[in-house]
Amino acid sequence: SPRQGPGPAAEPPDPSRLRPHVLLAQENTQIRDLQQENRELWVSLEEHQDALELIMSKYRKQMLQLLEGRKREDAEPVLKVHQANSGEIESQIDRICEMGAVMRKAVQVDDEQFFKVQEKLAQLELENKELRELLSISRESFEVGREDLPD
Q1: Number of domains the chain is built from
Q2: How far is residue 103's CA from residue 140's CA, in Å, rounded to a whole number?
Q3: Does 137 reside within a domain?
Q4: Is 99 a member of any domain?
Q5: What is the C-alpha separation between 119 and 108, in angstroms, rounded?
């Protein structure tokens, strides 16, 4: 059988043989297809982003609720301990105030006692001085009396 080459319909057209306006039309079609595909991809990307944002907002909301619930549970024993501590601190402050009042009273009593002792000491010193003066006067008179005595 005689060998037949492929006919012109089976061969893709050689771009160098095509006219420029046909090439431009093909390129324009490809560009339009690519632009359409880009638009579709952008829409798909935006839909995915919206879905992801929705999922993340729900996740954040649930986490906040969980944390708030846990905070309340965690805060309750801390609050009880704090109340107990503050009660204990108040009673300690009351005791300190009572001790302060007792100490003030003791200082006041000590001051009064000190002034009494000082007063007594001053009286004794005055008495001592007067007694010495009396003693010296009696000595002098005794000596003068001895001089008057005959030998």
Answers
A1: 1
A2: 54
A3: yes
A4: yes
A5: 16
Residue written as tokens 């982003």?
Answer: 49
Range of the domain at 71: 19-144
Q: What is the pTM of this model?
A: 0.34
Question: Does the residue 96 lie in any domain?
Answer: yes
pLDDT in tens for each of the 151 residues of the chain? Answer: 445 545 555 566 665 666 777 778 888 889 898 899 888 888 888 898 888 889 888 888 988 888 887 777 777 777 788 788 888 888 888 888 888 888 888 888 888 888 898 999 999 999 999 999 888 888 887 777 766 666 6
Q: Which residue has the tokens 């893709």?
A: 12
Round to whole Å and give the CA distance between 141 and 129.
18
Burial class (CB in 10 A: 0-12, 13-18, 19+), 62: exposed
Give the up-direction half-sphere exposure of residue 113: CA atoms within 13 A in the CB hemisphere.
6
